[in-house]
Amino acid sequence: MRGMVEGMRRRVVGFGLGLSLLVALAPVAARAQASTQAVTAFDSYVSIVERRLAQEHRSRDGFLAGPAGTAEGQARLRRGEVLIEQVKTPQVPDAMLHDWRGSAFAPGAKAADFEKLLRHFDGYARVFAPQVMSARTLAADGDHVQGTMGVRQKHVIAVVIDTTYDVQFGRLDAQDQWSASRSTRVEEIEDAGTSRERALRPQEEHGFLWRINTYWTWQVRDGGQYVQVESVSLTRGIPTGLGWIVGPFVESVPRESLEFTLKAACTQ
Q: Which of 26, 139, 161, 236 stands the most exposed, by the fewest C-beta atoms within 10 Å?
């Protein structure tokens, strides 16, 4: 579990993946606000994802999705491989849907420890530094938790996003658990950390991140814990003529982030 926490300390994919995808576009793209059509498309796609997850979580044998749910895939994970998948999403006018899923295996890890880590918003700024600048729990009622975070990502430029999440925890049993984290507020922060700091109005934002949902699934078996994370996000689209520049970035950043995080998370 120590390795799992240390890995997350260095990179928080579940909470920042969508932000990383298009940050390189800032110098060339106009500011953008999510259209009603884009938000509706995100909500519709999320409904499909959550129905699939609900079905998977009904059975211990079907708890994990994709290759990680097969005997061959689990053998690869136990050998130390990290499985990364880009899930195909529908096209959205003037926006992009992203769905990435990563799986890994943590020898000797315990489900209760991982659940405690995800529940404790107040510890995120310490555990997930430097990406998470601030975090606090807003409300907690059983398996329902609400929290807020300020996340900083730096690639070509530095971007700070304040996000509020509604998180639901669930379990099939003590060894098979999951959580669903849904963004309810996403604001881009200008001049963060200065006296001029302010949240940009929707019409002023750059569209780095409009929505992000993160779904964690963890299962204890075979002498350790399988960990799977799926991140679904909505960002602005790629400006006309820049696909040859941005396309590889859109694919490489989330893949590398997931692989780094999951490898580090499973290092004892």
A: 139
